[in-house]
Design goal:
Length: 232
């Protein structure tokens, strides 16, 4: 296979949508990479492997445990509480994460003579992460072009979409069933808790999109979702 696009793939809903978009743009010419950076929930990596298998895409897991050695974030340290105090970045912010991820993806792309990188960053539901903003992505794209003398293009198909619009895009791409295997829950459990802020945000997105979330939840969480199933 001649790789034309590399997708940053975390095993979450957004990156799964990016994977579907990349495969639509470059059928049978996509590879995915997942970073092991000591993230709170190892289950994300397991789910990423499952989705890559379903998508019939090669997945490379790259060790970036260096990040958790360098940073103190709620995403990499279980003893730090997930919170977002006013006027501060969320405690889940991992400084330099997207910068490093995209730079590693660009190195991999260079080796494969491929110039397209996909990432699911989004500034619409701005979560306070500066490295999800379009300004940063454009700036890094320029930097990578200068660094490697290659026309590396960073695709951000979700940049200006709401969660509901992302779900609608996945529906259009015909891969809604992949969402069954994506991981969102802050509690790191499957079936998902349905109560934590991440689950609630996910359910709200599905409700707004008028689509049933194929993910399994504990208890009554699915009551929050609209009744339009996966059809059509
Ligand atoms: Zn949850």
């Amino acid at each position: 296979m001649n790789t034309k696009a590399i997708v940053l793939f975390s095993g979450g809903q957004d990156s799964a949508t990016c994977l579907a978009q990349a495969l639509s743009d470059f059928p049978s010419a996509v590879e995915a990479i997942t970073f092991d950076y000591g993230q709170r929930h190892r289950i994300e990596i397991i789910q990423a492997q499952k989705i890559a298998k379903i998508a019939n895409v090669s997945l490379k897991i790259i060790d970036l445990s260096l990040i958790s050695q360098l940073t103190k974030s709620a995403l990499t340290h279980i003893n730090i509480i997930i919170e977002h105090k006013e006027g501060e970045l969320p405690s889940t912010f991992v400084p330099g994460r997207n910068h490093l991820f995209l730079s590693v993806a660009a190195i991999m792309a260079y080796q494969k003579n491929c110039t397209h990188i996909y990432t699911g960053v989004c500034q619409t539901d701005y979560s306070g992460y500066p490295d999800c903003r379009e300004d940063f992505i454009k700036s890094l794209e320029t930097t990578l072009n200068l660094a490697m003398s290659r026309p590396i293009q960073i695709h951000t198909p979700l940049m200006h979409l709401t969660k509901a619009e992302t779900i609608s895009l996945m529906k259009k791409l015909g891969r809604l069933e992949w969402y069954k295997e994506t991981h969102t829950c802050y509690e790191g459990v499957r079936p998902a808790c349905g109560q934590c802020p991440a689950c609630q945000l996910r359910l709200k997105g599905f409700k707004e999109a008028g689509v049933q979330d194929p993910l399994e939840y504990f208890g009554t969480a699915t009551d929050l979702v609209c009744d339009d199933p996966l059809k059509s």
